[in-house]
Specification:
The protein has 660 residues and is of the alpha+beta class. Among the domains are: 102 residues, Chitinase A, domain 3 (Roll); 102 residues, Chitinase A, domain 3, CATH 3.10.50; 110 residues, no CATH class; 99 residues, Chitinase A, domain 3, CATH 3.10.50. It contains 23 helices and 21 strands. The strands form 6 sheets. Strands 3, 4, 5, 6 and 7 form a 5-stranded antiparallel sheet that branches. It has a 4-stranded antiparallel sheet with strand order 9-8-11-10, with helices on both faces. A 4-stranded antiparallel sheet has the order 17-16-19-18. A hairpin with a 2-residue loop joins strand 10 and strand 11.
Length: 660
């Protein structure tokens, strides 16, 4: 009976305790004063310090404990920083504001332009399109008439007119009008952005429903094929040019020859050997016809189309091009690269083709967001003052207008005339050009872009968690740096008396090693070094010979002398110390590192203690390091005494065991 009663009670107790246990994220691993450090915060910060969560999971318990010690110390320092009012310190706040603006602008351009732009470009370039177009240039008719004509043609096509016929009749692109407007296979990054966006949005065998405007004119766009893009292929070919045996054009002879080669291939003969024997391409025949890797549009169209439609190992039918008849064998193809592999090329393409237009669109959005306006009255005054003047010239009545508000945004912020004029004068693209409304507006847009990005950067912390975390890290960093300066670095007093006392306490640490002073004569010639040795034996002065003949760079002006150096500072110093014991003695010639040496010992300086003056730089460094550690420890002890930190090392065994 007793057992039947107690068992349900144990189950209930277990359920009760389980329901009362904190969630993994809420486990308290440390506390000080009235603050708690919970597991989710600890795991996040430790993973950040380790590089990522996966790396952190493999670390030992002792590593987790060491980090908890450091992190609690860090958190107590931050608490002290706020107690001291660092968050109200004008200098620190200005530093934080400057950093926020500078980094925020870069962050916006990276996250809102470059990163999504590169990702979109990368994804688009996985696909290639075959596109046809009809183009109307505004050169002769004017822009409005060109647009009107393009729209009328598009309306006709929508009502059933044949696209190819319309191209043949109306297109101003003479390269494609006689082949239905076909501009062959293209991929993202090869076309004007407006054209590209429309093409990628168009289904196969359809015409884009609107007229597209680019810097070349007005386009009607038709997509005839979409396919997975192959970035590069490797192919071999056999070329038979159109010349006959006598060197004159003989197409029939060439066709008969290529037919013979094809029959041999079909009979199983080796492609590479046939290329060596029959191909007229002198550049590739010696390599069995191998052309290496190449991309789309790098070969003539007929060759390109045939080659890119093959699979590895396949051989084409006979292909005719302007160069002659080809038989093509596809030998390899490269897979689509990973994003990281392609990133450098993507950045180059993006910045050349899309960055400016997407930057302008971003600035236009910011203009709307922050209520940007141009003061038209002031702009009129500026244009009147600049009439018939070139960029860089002093505007008429400039002193009267330079401080007037040309632009306003964010309701209260203004950009004055002088700022816009200075920017215009600094841009090389405007140099020495007549000032007109277009140039002034371009300069204004550059100034506005800079200003609005700065404003957006200062707002970014409110809307972007990642940037807010970045700013928290920087804010914490400058606060702790200030604490270290106040509590440690500024308190280190390195006066000579203290340094000398420190030197006396650790005098045995500051010792000169064994040193020598030696000179050398070096020559790359075995015969010459023996000539110099003979002169020495006949009484010639070593230093004079070294100053005249030694060939080691930079040593002649020193008469071959190395000065006083440690015996193990270089192989030649070690060799000198081993060979010679008497000052003034010199060695016989011996081979050494690319030449031949004669060395002379000038003096030996056995190991001995350094004087205070000789050791002063080392003493100063060691003293400051020791003082820093002492003051740091004293400061931490004062924080521990004030905040009484409690660290629950046993809880760390649960770290990274549960992600709920």
């Amino acid at each position: 009976m007793f057992r039947r009663v107690i068992l349900p009670f144990a189950v209930l107790a277990s359920l009760f305790l389980s329901s009362c246990a904190p969630k993994h994220a809420d486990i308290v691993v440390a506390k000080f004063d009235d603050e708690q450090i919970k597991m989710n915060e600890f795991e996040k910060m430790y993973a950040k310090n380790s590089g990522n969560y996966e790396a952190a999971k493999d670390d030992s318990l002792s590593q987790l404990k060491n980090f908890l010690d450091l992190y609690v110390n860090f958190r107590m320092k931050l608490r002290d920083a706020y107690v001291r009012g660092y968050d109200s310190n004008p200098e620190l706040n200005q530093e934080l504001q400057d950093y926020k603006e500078k980094v925020g602008v870069s962050y916006i351009l990276e996250k809102q332009l470059l990163a999504p732009g590169l990702k979109n470009l990368y994804d688009r370039r996985k696909i290639e399109l075959r596109v046809s177009h009809l183009m109307i240039r505004p050169d002769s008719t004017g822009d409005a008439a060109a647009k009107q004509l393009a729209q009328a043609i598009l309306d006709s096509i929508k009502q059933g007119a044949d696209f190819s016929e319309m191209v043949k009749k109306y297109s101003d692109d003479n390269y494609s009008k006689n082949i239905g407007g076909d501009i062959y296979y293209v991929t993202a990054g090869l076309l004007p952005p407006e054209f590209e966006d429309a093409a990628y949005a168009t289904p196969v065998d359809s015409v884009y429903p609107s007229v597209v405007h680019s810097r070349y004119g007005y386009h009607l766009i038709k997509v005839t094929e979409k396919r997975q893009r192959i970035t590069q292929i490797r192919a071999s070919h056999i070329l038979v040019n159109f010349n006959g045996p006598e060197g004159k054009v003989d197409t029939a002879y060439a066709k008969a020859k290529i037919d013979t080669v094809m029959q041999k291939i079909k009979a199983g003969e080796d492609f590479a050997k046939l290329a060596e024997e029959y191909s007229d391409d002198t550049g590739s025949k010696k390599n069995g016809g191998d052309l290496g890797f190449f991309g789309r549009r790098m070969m003539v169209k007929e060759f390109d189309e045939a080659a890119f439609n093959l699979k590895p190992g396949e051989i084409s039918d006979i292909v005719k091009s302007n160069f002659g008849f080809h038989i093509i064998k596809l030998t390899d193809q490269k897979p689509y690269p990973s994003f990281d592999e392609d990133k450098e090329e993507l950045e180059k393409i993006y910045k050349q083709t899309r960055y400016q237009s997407e930057y302008d669109a971003l600035i236009d959005n910011l203009k709307d967001k922050y209520g940007f306006q141009i003061n038209q009255d002031v702009l009129t005054k500026v244009l009147a003052s600049a009439d018939s003047l070139r960029v860089g010239s002093q505007l008429r009545n400039y002193d009267e207008i330079k401080d007037q508000p040309l632009l306003t945004y964010n309701k209260v912020d203004t950009i004055r005339v002088q700022t816009a004029i200075d920017r215009m004068n600094s841009e090389r693209e405007f140099m020495n050009r007549l000032i007109d409304k277009d140039i002034l507006n371009t300069a204004i847009n550059k100034v506005v872009g800079d200003s609005l990005l700065s404003v957006a950067a200062l707002d970014l912390e409110k809307t972007d968690k990642e940037f807010a975390s970045l700013m928290d890290d920087y804010r914490n960093g400058i606060y702790v740096f200030k604490l270290q300066d106040d509590e440690i670095w500024s308190k280190i007093n390195s006066d000579s008396t203290k340094l000398y006392d420190y030197y006396l306490q650790a005098k045995d640490k500051y010792v000169w090693p064994d040193r020598i002073n030696f000179s050398e004569i070096f020559s790359k010639s075995d015969s010459l070094i023996h000539v110099y040795y003979s002169e020495l034996q006949n009484g010639a002065d070593f230093d004079s010979l070294a100053a005249k003949y030694t060939e080691k760079p930079g040593m002649k002006q020193n008469s071959g002398n190395y000065g006083l150096v440690n015996v193990d500072s270089s192989p030649i110093a070690t060799r000198t110390n081993q060979l010679l014991s008497e000052p003034g003695s010199y060695s016989e010639p011996f081979p050494f590192v690319g030449g031949y040496e004669i060395i002379k010992l000038n003096a030996k300086d056995p190991s001995h203690p350094k004087t205070f003056e000789e050791a002063k730089a080392e003493v100063s460094g060691a003293f400051q390091e020791a003082e820093s550690k002492r003051l740091e420890q004293n400061y931490l002890e004062s924080l521990k005494k004030r905040y009484d930190p409690q660290l629950y090392y046993d809880k760390l065994e649960e770290a990274y065991k549960d992600t709920n």
